[in-house]
Amino acid sequence: MAATPDSNVTLDFDLSGIVLRLEDVPRSSAAALRRELSVYAVSPASRPFLRLRVGRGEAPPPRAAFAPKSMRSELSAVGAVFSMPEGRAEIALSGAGEIELARDLGDREYFTLLNLVRSCLAWMLPSRGGALLHAAGLVIERRGFVLVGAEGTGKSTWARLGEEAGGRVVSDDLVLLDTADGGYDLLGAPFRSTHRTTMLKGRWPLAAVLFPDHGEKPKLEPVPALLAKARIAANLTFIADAVECDERVPALIERLQRSVPCAELTFAPEIGFVGLLRNWHGPMSG
């Protein structure tokens, strides 16, 4: 993929233990990255997990409104291609890849770049057992909890109520998980969240993977292993379709389900469920 950079800006970011390097970033996007992701910026790292070279191609900007959910993917066990009207990315199993942006994107360039970077990271993470998951993340009593589910399942409400009860919101839409000490950590990372929250570095032991249900009385119930795996698979951001073609992905799902207790959390739009999580000792058998 030909991508001609208009600058020579290289930026390294430490996403709470996962290092990302962006090379040849266009100046306008580099300035936005430095400003918005300053808490994660680090000096050049010797061994970044993901290395992406960025440039602008010759494609004109699309006339349609910006629609990041229009991204298409071609996934395999050795590489992936992600495409959207504003640009495309290619990533190999080595962790090296290229991003090509359309020209004259204006303010859309930065958000296009972030979306393509996230997609490449999501595809690489199973190589280390990690995951980018469509979920909300809360830290309660120094432990991480994630509520997994599609749009409209109550993730933002859950995150807001947890914060009102003393928890810390990591994100209400997209969370980064990484392996740690036989289990998993919830990581502070600069991923999308409709809830206003302070970006921060940090790793918190993941105490439970939760699936939402709604009812007046808060309760936790076990989830059968097969159902838990299916729900995790459906919410693997950008790579859910790779389950059949990439053995890293089912291995990740198996490891996450076996390593971290999975439970269904019933909650109403009030803070009663937080006490259950504070007293959570897991695991629950399904």
What does this structure look like?
The protein is of the alpha+beta class. The chain has 2 domains: 9-128, no CATH class; 131-278, Phosphoenolpyruvate Carboxykinase, domain 3 (Alpha-Beta Complex). The chain is 23% helix and 34% strand. The protein contains 6 helices and 16 strands. It has helices spanning 27-36, 108-124, 155-164, 225-234, 248-259, 273-278, and strands at residues 9-14, 19-25, 41-42, 50-56, 72-75, 79-84, 87-92, 96-101, 131-140, 143-148, 168-171, 174-180, 183-187, 203-214, 219-222, 262-267. The protein has an 8-stranded mixed beta sheet with strand order 3-1-2-4-8-7-6-5. Strands 9-10-14-13-12 form a 5-stranded mixed beta barrel, surrounded by 4 helices. Helix 4 packs across helix 5. The longest helix is centred in the middle third of the chain and has 17 residues, at 108-124. The radius of gyration is 19 Å and the shape is globular. The mean pLDDT is 92.
